[in-house]
Give the backbone structure.
Amino acid sequence: MSNGLKQYFPMIQTREELCKKIQTTPELKFLFDSWDESQQEEFLQFCTGMQGVKILYDSFFKEILNPDTAPSRLEELLSLILQRHIRILHVLPNDSSRIAEENALLIMDIVVQLEDGSIANIEVQKIGYSFPGQRSACYLADLLLRQYKRAKNERKKKFSYRDIKSVYTIVFIEKSSGEMKRHKQDYVHHFCQKSDTGLHMELLQEFVFIPLDIYRETRHNKGIPIRASRNTCLRRGGFFLFFGKYFKPVQFRGRLICIQNEATKPGAHPGSDTQ
C-alpha cells in the first residue's frame, strides 16, 4: 500500500491490521470465513487500497447513486442522459409484479418522479435480456398506466390527459446483447417516437439503452469519438467526467468506511450483485 494514499485516506488499513481485526471480531470472522478464498482476497484488496471496487456490485452501486441519500448524483447522471436539468421529486415504489427471471438479472431498479411530473425508471442489468425492446416497452407501458391511474385517482373530476407526463426507461447493461455489439462505436442509444411527416404529438414514452461493456471498450481503447449527432458529443464527454468523478478508484476507496459497513451485513460478500 502506498504511504501517499494512506496520507489522504487514513481509514485504509494494512493487510496485517485488517486480518487482525477480522480474527478478533467474531461477527466479522464468521462472515469472512463464509466466503471462498477468491472473495476473501478480493475483500482484502479493496480494504487495503490495493484494488478499486467493482462499481456494479449491488452495495457499491447503490451507495453511490442512492436517490434517498444522495439525490444530486442521480440527478446529475439523468441530466447528462436526458440533456436537460433534472431534479428528483420523489422515489416511487418498484413494481413488485416483475417475474422472478427478470429480477434475478437486475442489479438495481429505481423509479423516481421528476420535478416536472415525469417518471424515470433506471435499471442496471447484469446481462442484456433477450428481446430488450419488447420487454422495456411492456414495462414502460405499465409505468404509464400506473401514472394514469394515480393521476385519475388524485385529480378525480378535474383529471385531464394533460396531467399525464413523460415516462423514461434508462437501462445500463453490464454485458450487452448481440444487436448492441453490432454498434461498437455507440454506447448511448436513445429511442423516442416521431412522425414521418414532422407532425408533433406528445406520445410520452422514451427509452435509453447504455451498454457499459461497449462504453469501457470505446473509452479505454479508442478514446471518445467526436461525432455530430445531438445525442453523442455532450453525453460521451459528460459520461466520462461523471464516472471519473464518482467511480475512479482512489475517490471510491476514500468511501470504504461506509462501503465496508454495507458489505459486512449478514449474507453479503464482495461478489454479491443481487438484491
